[in-house]
Design a protein that fits this description.
elongated; about 475 residues; binds adenosine-5'-triphosphate; binds magnesium ion; Rossmann fold; 19 helices; 16 strands
């Protein structure tokens, strides 16, 4: 499909504008502006593919710094819009400076028709190339998103559900513990939808304050609030045609929830400080690791919004629910991480595999990735034979196993430094107490102290100045 490209000519001289228009109008749609403010207006209202900027601008046409300053502003406000500058003749140094400030080309006055056309066609070609690269990257990103690993029944069901839901326009709520792959699922929904070629945009709703989140979502006009120096498009607008992923939606402040609800109801919104209504066609996917129903109960989440986003639900199982996939996942992650570190590591020792299978993985696949990455960094053999210590509080292991796991990560030879041993002892003591309600004797039995539990525990608690209960 060929679409006519639009060029905005910014020049205070009407004759120059007319000349350029005559030269270019057979190939391009031409818009005109006599000075920067008018140009800003045009850029706000129209899709512009390229700007031709005369550096001799009012109020001081003899001072090219005015034009240079506007060029710098253009490059920060619309960094993706290519700019070609017009200079007086003999202003080669100026043209070079403009190029190092981001202009894609230049031509002089008076106009040489061939030079003008060549320069503009060349700049357009550079821009098209950049767009093609972005699209390629996007396609690669969405392909990468297609890999949800796991042959267990729960993972097969998950993939089947995604395949069923992805082609529909329905809003999806993805739930699951931390690190289970909620964002991965959101990317797959996008990649398998008719919107795959359009943007996928993820926003973490819990990580921003009200004003920031609102302006990220809906954009703002220049001067909408202190610090809003320029107009900015929000993610709702940028995701047009694509998918908007609201991560951690439970963390969204109530005032933003109200605004989001209005957008979902009316399909329209305005930028902060703006009046005109904007329509945007986005597919909404939300995620939450919090209990959203509880948030509704205690007034932290609007119930009307809850019903709007809770249309189709996808629950991503925690890793402990499909431990049969762990060897496969661990192997793929190992391949990936060792390639990243430039190492050739083929697998895990049986002992390490067993260790991984006994662990509860509270941080799910992300934790698995992190543990393997650390092991790869520390490993200098062909096989991973030791894992960095797994967090004792969450593992199903007892005291001895924990100690063993910890000792495993220390260098084979060499002295196990007293300080490190003490720090482990301290952690082990806290873990034991925490697990047994700070009841000394129970914790002591779990640690394997048998009959001498009481004395040993008193000794350790004194040593580390830990509070405990007698019984
Ligand atoms: N089934 C899976 N197959 C392959 N990789 C997975 C799988 N599940 C998760 N991952 C990987 O684990 C990491 C964490 O996944 P992701 O960021 O999607 O989790 P999340 O649920 O969004 O976590 P959080 O709640 O912390 O935001 C990612 O690198 C992801 O690619
Ligand atoms: Mg996430």
């Amino acid at each position: 499909m060929s679409m006519q490209r639009t060029i905005l000519v910014v020049d205070d001289n009407e004759i120059n504008r007319l000349n350029l228009k005559l030269l270019l109008k057979s190939d391009y749609h031409i818009l005109e502006a006599g000075e920067p403010d008018a140009a800003e207006d045009m850029l706000a209202k129209h899709r512009v593919d390229l700007v031709v900027l005369d550096l001799a601008l009012p109020p001081e046409p003899d001072n090219p710094e005015i034009g240079m300053a506007y060029l710098a502003r253009l490059k920060t406000e619309s960094p993706d819009t290519p700019v070609v500058v017009v200079t007086g003749h003999d202003q080669h140094a100026l043209a070079v400076r403009a190029q190092s400030s981001g202009a894609l080309g230049f031509f002089g006055k008076p106009f040489d028709p061939d030079e003008v056309k060549d320069t503009i066609d060349h700049a357009m070609e550079i821009r098209n190339q950049a767009i093609r690269e972005q699209e390629l990257q996007r396609a690669l990103d969405s392909r990468m998103g297609a890999d949800i690993l796991g042959e267990s029944e729960v993972m097969q069901n998950l993939r089947a559900l995604i395949a069923q839901v992805a082609p529909t326009p329905s809003t999806v709520l993805i739930r699951g513990e931390t690190g289970v792959g909620k964002e991965l699922v959101a990317r797959c929904l996008h990649a398998q939808s008719p919107r795959a070629e359009q943007p996928f945009i993820a926003i973490n709703c819990a990580a921003m304050n009200v004003e920031h989140l609102e302006s990220e979502l809906f954009g703002h006009e220049k001067g909408a609030f202190a610090g809003a120096g320029k107009r900015k498009l929000g993610w709702f607008e940028r995701a047009n045609g694509g998918t908007l992923f609201l991560d951690e939606v439970a963390g969204m402040p109530l005032s933003v929830q109200a605004k989001l609800l209005r957008v979902l109801e009316h399909g329209e919104f305005s930028r902060l400080g703006g009046e005109s209504l904007i329509r945007s066609d986005v597919r909404l996917v939300c995620s939450s690791k919090m209990d959203l129903e509880a948030c509704v109960q205690n007034g932290e989440f609007r119930d009307d919004l809850y019903y709007r986003i809770h249309v189709v639900e996808i629950e991503v199982p925690s890793l402990s629910e499909h431990m049969e996939d762990l060897p496969l996942l661990a192997e793929k992650i190992l391949l990936q991480k060792s390639a990243l570190c430039g190492k050739q590591i083929d697998g895990f020792s049986d002992k390490v595999l067993a260790q991984m299978q006994h662990y509860r993985w509270p941080g799910n696949v992300r934790e698995l990735e992190n543990v393997i990455e650390r092991a790869v960094v520390l490993c200098d053999k062909k096989t991973i034979e030791a894992l960095p210590v797994l967090d004792g509080v969450h593992s199903g292991m007892g005291g001895d196993d924990l100690l063993e796991a910890w000792l495993q990560q220390l260098p084979e030879s060499g002295i196990k430094a007293e300080k490190e041993v003490a720090s482990f002892e301290h952690r082990l003591l806290l873990t034991a107490l925490e697990r047994h309600g700070y009841i000394k004797t129970r914790a002591g039995r779990w640690l394997g102290f048998g009959d001498r539990a009481k004395d040993k525990m008193r000794y350790l608690c004194d040593k580390y100045e830990v509070e405990f209960q007698e019984e």
